[in-house]
């Protein structure tokens, strides 16, 4: 007889493990199924985000930025350093330690909350049953009153650049280089491509980013995207837009890359090539034919606004469903579903999910962009405040970028906050909190911000919306 739970979660990434913990907190008998093994061939919880995504990439981004500062910026602070060297294997080793500590931390949280961990690959069957194939091949069936599918996503493969995880790597392989490549190619100028390209560029690689789209960061506010392109190019990333990859050939541990752009056929040779063209939902061998769960035309599991699938009692969250592939979106969906299973009426605000690119300067935004609002015919007022006018940013020698606040011209309600610059992610979160409470630009401008802080740029941008900024000249009203 199969073992029964109140809630069974497939996947222990940021959606699944959070859903499992919240369900257990609500008194539901909960189990979480995970198959991923870490570098030590032992079960590792946390999914892509923790093992080979958000966390390890931030560890490398921070290490490489510190190296860049020591090498190129300390002298401006009066600090002289004779020779700066980067031990890549030590940097990667530190990253691995952080990952291991955090995965162990989730295991500890499961234990503390009474979540049962089931090791293996979960497959949804009919009648709310899940078949789990263990790493040793043994098969066991479990059943539950409610099932949450949180299987995550995986990098998209493209035929012209088959990944071998040696010369041509995906985002996972790019986290484990043991030396800095002299010439590095990156296919895709999205979040992952820009972050990983930045890491290795700071450490001395000559980086070329090949992007098929003509527009740089099309989902980001256009003014922010233009500034980002200018800044990243200045940092040494050669970003080729409108460039379509046509083929790759590996010769003598190097890869010859062919692509076409406005100038015609192009060829470049790289020591390493990172393929970062996006991610796709991980639904292979996940759903039995008679499970009743439907996929949409793009291969995502079809769900309603509350993450319920077409089968009563079966939910899906995170990267396998519609919406941005972001860890924090998955986690909040996990909490919402767990609470709804427990009989609460929790809902999620999909309009205020912040997005961040952890380059330096950071690029972040929440709410709508200026181009979206204009296309919708919404009359708006815009306030922009540059970090070049921020005393705190000057003191930190970090004055690139600006804060931009967009408000409805009639009601003054803030509709979007977009930042490129130091601590952009943290500042945008301030905007998200304010917008969740329906703030007006005037409200933000009237608040007392401590001085000197980077967040004063938020206050000044809010004041600038209505032509009242103190520390920059205001645009004259037409």
Q: By helix and strand content, what is the structural category? A: alpha/beta
Number of domains: 3
Q: Judging by the overall fold, what is the CATH architecture of the largest domain?
A: 3-Layer(bba) Sandwich
Calculate the mean pLDDT score and round it. Answer: 97
Indicate the percent of residues in helices: 25-40%
Q: Give me the number of helical elements.
A: 12
CATH first level of the largest domain? Alpha Beta
Per the principal axes of the C-alpha atoms, what is the gross shape?
globular
Structural account:
- Residues 353-462 form the Pyridine nucleotide-disulphide oxidoreductase dimerisation domain.
- The chain is 29% helix and 25% strand.
- The protein folds into 3 domains: 3-155 and 280-348, FAD/NAD(P)-binding domain; 168-277, FAD/NAD(P)-binding domain (3-Layer(bba) Sandwich); 354-465, FAD/NAD-linked reductase, C-terminal dimerisation domain (Enolase-like, domain 1).
- With 478 residues, the chain is of the alpha/beta class.
- The protein is globular, with a radius of gyration of 24 Å.
- It has helices spanning 16-25, 47-52, 54-72, 88-113, 191-202, 222-234, 327-341, 370-375, 391-395, 424-436, 441-446, 456-465; strands at residues 3-10, 30-34, 116-119, 121-124, 129-133, 139-149, 153-155, 168-169, 183-187, 206-210, 237-240, 244-251, 254-261, 264-270, 272-275, 279-281, 314-316, 355-357, 362-367, 380-386, 402-408, 414-421.
- Helix 1 (16-25) packs parallel to helix 4 (88-113), helix 1 runs parallel beside helix 7 (327-341) and helix 3 (54-72) packs parallel to helix 5 (191-202).
- The chain is built from 12 helices and 22 strands.
